[in-house]
Amino acid sequence: MAFSRVFSDPPSKSIFKxxxxxxxSILASLYFLHCLTERCGTCMPTERRDAGPAxxxxxxxxxxxxxxRRKRLLxxxxxxxxxxxxxxxLHQSVSAEDLPEIEADKRMFLSRVKLSNSLNVDLxxxxxxxxxxxxxxxxxxxxxxxxxxxxxxxxxxxxxxxxFLRVHPDIRAVGAEPHFFDRNYENGLDWxxxxxxxxLEGQITMEKTPSYFVTREAPSRIYAMSRDTKLIVVVRDPVxxxxxxxxxxxxxxPDIPTFESLTFKNRTTGLIDxxxxxxxxxxxxxxxxxxxxxxxxxxILFVSGERLISDPAGxxxxxxxxxxxxxxxxxxxxxxxxTKGFPCLKKAEGSSKPHCLGKTKGRTHPNIDPEIVQRxxxxxxxxxxxxxxxxxxxxxxxx
Length: 399
Ligand SMILES: Nc1ncnc2c1ncn2[C@@H]1O[C@H](COP(=O)(O)OS(=O)(=O)O)[C@@H](OP(=O)(O)O)[C@H]1O
What we know:
By secondary structure, the protein is an alpha/beta fold. It is built from 16 helices and 11 strands. The strands form 4 sheets. Strands 3-5-2-6-9 form a 5-stranded parallel β-sheet. Strands 1-4 form a two-stranded antiparallel ribbon. Strands 7-8 form a two-stranded antiparallel ribbon. It is found in: Endomembrane system; Golgi apparatus membrane.
């Protein structure tokens, strides 16, 4: 009897013990969460908003440090995501290039966008990811509608621009192309907002969908969302752009007719088929007219696709100015990769490794008969002249 009293607890005592253990575990988890939000441990300097002129320089430095830190903080919190999520096959199976351009399988597309954004995977390059769900549980930042959008043009260099911009600590961008203002508008703004990554105060939310530039309804729809939206268009020599567009289609459907036969309505008369999208997209002046019905020129920035390759830092400087951001992305961020034949990032967003765009960017183009190329140059010339006049910039496609 005495033995059993010493070695076996009465039921109430054992319940108390279990309860005490549970309480301790809850307290330990709470403390762990608390530390995750960095409210314990080190004390970091924070941004000062009230710096007077004499403190300007230091305030600026502090601001840069603050914004860099903000982004690092956001990225750090995602780095516990299982590495399997970065597995190459995942990126391959959801490659943005694989998203059907015209006859999109909507359900598949939406699930891809969702997957991309839940991981913040850049579907094209697989370069970075961001666990928005995790942040939401910590209550950091909030999803906002984009304040700036790269609206075009297809094959202009839009992916390169977005990837480069993502290096900036004050830019947060969705990796996949949401196609909201063309294919998914009926889903509503809440759906669109939900695709966006979380941002902290002062950060700019961005997305890119190159087909917006040629979508008739896109200007009015974006205007309805916010008349202050900043628009960026990466333009490229329309002839090279058309060939690049064709090369992409050919890579997916090797049986399509030749570039030559698609270019002409009638080969003997030399009449160009302007209904072919590869040709149509390059008539920039016509599409721009549509945008100018809703947005002033001052709200649209034109980036040269050619200079984005020959002088990425120069073009990025213009974009950062346009977005009202400090020029943080400079020459130091790029190197020219001889094998790729393009500029690449020394360090991609959220990584310490060099990063080039994927193999679907910078494809080898098929050889096109120089006569046909010349015919296309003649066709585009008046439209290009008009476009130079409208934008006040000579892009040098006809020199
Ligand atoms: N740094 C860097 N690396 C690789 N590729 C680069 C880069 N900068 C610009 N480009 C050019 O981007 C072209 C693809 O344009 P987009 O990204 O707008 O294409 S898409 O519309 O999103 O499919 C792609 O076109 P192609 O060369 O025809 O493949 C490239 O020429």
